[in-house]
């Protein structure tokens, strides 16, 4: 008469196991041996595989919460900028420019590459504000940007100037007429808010200086308000003569910074500052200022 063993799942008839039951008994004994060797994790993994996705995720979170977290790996920094030849630019003779070369040497001191990725100015600023691990240069420090960025160090000073074309203006008109004119500014730069605060009524934003210069040529804007070194560099790059433009009033002189995304901590900022200080001590920073015709 047969009986059923509920643990091993075997059926015996007259005290002797059938061939099938012998095989089952063998597998059961092997499983017991494996479990005794501490391989129950296999059973746990199988259990998780059979759960639905939501249950599996919850179970995985429970396990991970009780396990030590791995040490975070160092994230390389991304450097972003815009095309401001001859100061910093992506293509052509002398690229990446005086500032690009300085930042490359800064990266060498840090032991990691700091070669710029180029974007339209407003896009580069947004990437830096969002992070993580992003540096941006050049950038003016303003109250509006104060809380959305961290500030590494001053690189140089910029003077912002209103310009017009001499073939239209022998000299720029009085300020009331200037404020009624159409003024082009770089999108995302300080010019728009500054001119609005001064009472300028018609401000046109463009993504880069080539577009601004084209609008001046077409007569769809009357003036441009721009950082002096970058505007003169744009003229040079485009083959235009600075003497063909007349300089008007300057409403701003700003420190230009190396900025960082808000996730960088004080230790990282101090490491960047220490590397820049070394460039100042050994004379490489002075060579940058001289080459770029800038002042600190």
What does this entry look like structurally?
By secondary structure, the chain is of the alpha/beta class. The protein has 11 helices and 11 strands. The protein is globular. It starts with a strand and ends with a helix. Mean pLDDT is 81; it is low at 1-21 and 27-73.
Could you give a quick summary of the protein structure above?
With about 300 residues, this protein is of the alpha/beta class. It has 11 helices and 11 strands. The chain has 2 domains: about 1-65, no CATH class; about 80-295, 3-Layer(aba) Sandwich (D-Maltodextrin-Binding Protein, domain 2), CATH 3.40.190.
Task: Let me know the average pLDDT.
Answer: 81
CATH architecture of the largest domain: 3-Layer(aba) Sandwich
The level of helicity is 40-55%
**What's the Cα radius of gyration?**
34 Å
Assign the CATH class of the largest domain. Alpha Beta
Instruction: Report the total helices.
Output: 11
For the terminal residues, how far apart are their CA atoms? Answer: 102 Å
């Amino acid at each position: 008469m047969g009986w059923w063993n509920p643990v091993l799942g075997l059926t015996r008839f007259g005290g002797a196991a059938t061939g099938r039951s012998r095989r089952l008994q063998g597998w059961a004994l092997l499983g017991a041996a494996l479990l005794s060797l501490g391989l129950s994790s296999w059973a746990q993994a199988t259990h998780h595989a059979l759960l639905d996705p939501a249950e599996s995720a919850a179970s995985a979170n429970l396990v991970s919460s009780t396990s030590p977290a791995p040490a975070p790996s160092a994230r390389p920094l991304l450097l972003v900028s815009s095309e401001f030849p001859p100061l910093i630019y992506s293509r052509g003779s002398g690229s990446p420019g005086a500032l690009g070369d300085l930042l490359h040497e800064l990266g060498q001191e840090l032991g990691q590459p700091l070669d710029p990725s180029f974007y339209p100015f407003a896009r580069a600023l947004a990437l830096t504000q969002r992070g993580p691990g992003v540096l941006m240069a050049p950038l003016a420090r303003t109250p509006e940007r104060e809380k959305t960025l961290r500030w590494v160090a001053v690189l140089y000073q910029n003077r912002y100037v209103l310009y017009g074309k001499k073939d239209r203006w022998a000299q720029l008109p009085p300020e009331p007429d200037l404020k009624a004119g159409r003024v082009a500014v770089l999108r995302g730069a300080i010019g728009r808010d500054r001119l609005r605060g001064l009472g300028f009524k018609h401000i046109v934003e463009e993504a880069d200086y080539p577009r601004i210069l084209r609008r001046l040529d077409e007569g769809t804007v009357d003036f441009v308000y721009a950082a002096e070194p970058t505007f003169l560099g744009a003229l040079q790059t485009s083959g235009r003569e600075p003497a063909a433009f007349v300089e008007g009033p300057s409403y701003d002189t700003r420190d230009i910074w190396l900025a960082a995304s808000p996730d960088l901590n004080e230790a990282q900022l101090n490491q960047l500052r220490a590397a820049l200080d070394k460039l100042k001590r050994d004379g490489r920073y002075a060579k940058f200022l001289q080459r770029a015709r800038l002042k600190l």
